[in-house]
Amino acid sequence: MLANLNDVLRPAKEQHYAVGLFNSVTLEMTDAIFNAAEKLNAPVIMGTAEILLPSASLAAVADMVRNRAMHSHVPVVLHYDHGLTFEKCMEAMKLGFTSIMYDCSTASYEENVSRLAEMVKIAHAMGVTVEGELGHVGDNEGAGKLTKPSDYYTKVDQAADFVSRTGVDALAIAVGNAHGDYKFPPKLDFERISEIAAAVDVPLVLHGGSGLSDNDFREAIRRGIAKVNIFTDINKAQVRGMRQAMDAGVTAASDMVPYEVEAIQSVVETKMHLFSSEGHAV
Predict the structure, then answer these.
(1) Would residue 81 show up in a list of annotated catalytic residues for this protein?
(2) Most exposed among 120, 178, 230, 279, judged by the fewest C-beta atoms under 10 Å?
(3) DSSP secondary structure string, 52-89?
């Protein structure tokens, strides 16, 4: 069934588990994520991000996910992650995405608030939930890498004001996490997570989940994280599936598909168990 962030994250926040967002840019990823969620009876968030649109358009992702979600027995949120422009967020909502993240985190605080508040009014009128980001989650490498990430950590004393003035349904925070492959084990500021969770009444989101340790996840969720974003891990899993197929002597692309789906599904199931979201589909 199609759902939005409030449908799946409010219960997660109250019951201290987390729901995974698994971005999908291939049919193999989509099938694997659905298979895992339905097998484990777990709510799930699926979608794409603006940076991934060269791999699969918003329309393509909507087509892959929406119809199956409507016929699934588990809640499925179709989420547009890290939308960087007003126009693309509007396109996503018109295509039937049930949730968006409007990422204005590189703007000034007041501009972030102003732009998010405007988007929230529009999205809520369309029945769509909105995630915002306070602070800024950079990348582990490339153009988005931050020289000193701690300078961009979410400020606890701004969190309540930000949520109140924007009306966002979920808040992505920067606490030592980053997108992509971690070159060194990250050190999350768990105390900051607890302080932010105590300051706001909306579910908290952890971006850059691929590469964190099991203990990192457990502690972050215990402290108040209700949504965890995963892509790098499943992106790599699909390649592992391809290699396993080739090692098995497979020479046709269509015959590789079961290997790819199995490899991705295994990762998704492992994360769902770790987030304790299995059995929470309602």
Answers:
(1) yes
(2) 279
(3) GTTTS-HHHHHHHHHHHHHT-SS-EEEEEEEE-SHHHH
